[in-house]
Amino acid sequence: MSFSAEVIDKLSDLITAAFALVAALAWNTAIQAIFAEIFGEGSGIPAMLGYAVTVTIIAVACTIWIGRIAKRAKTGSE
């Protein structure tokens, strides 16, 4: 792989990661707004911990689910 191809490859990775970060921040704001609507404007530590735990559980579940789908797509089985 030539130097310029490697640079383009890395730039595409960085740009993709930047868009993922922007999307994650947008979802973070949306989810915080939903929590505030449901549970009120609780800004205490228990509310923040509850939010963090809930988002972590959702992220882990989605990551496992996406990993399984990717594995099936690579192997071609259902």
Give your account of this protein's structure:
The protein is an all-alpha fold and 78 residues long. Helix content is 87%, strand content 0%. It starts with a helix and ends with a helix. The mean pLDDT is 85.
What composes the largest sheet? none
Helix content: over 70%
- What is the H/E order? HH
The helix tally amounts to 2
Strand content range: under 5%
Structural class assignment: mainly alpha
Q: What's the count of strands? A: 0
Mean pLDDT: 85
Question: Terminal Cα separation, in Å?
Answer: 35 Å
Low-confidence stretches: none
Give a quick set of tags describing it.
78 residues; mainly alpha; 2 helices
Write a short abstract of this structure.
By secondary structure, this protein is an all-alpha fold. The chain has helices spanning 3-39, 45-75. The relative contact order is 0.06.
Q: Layout of SSEs?
A:
Elements: H1 3-39, H2 45-75
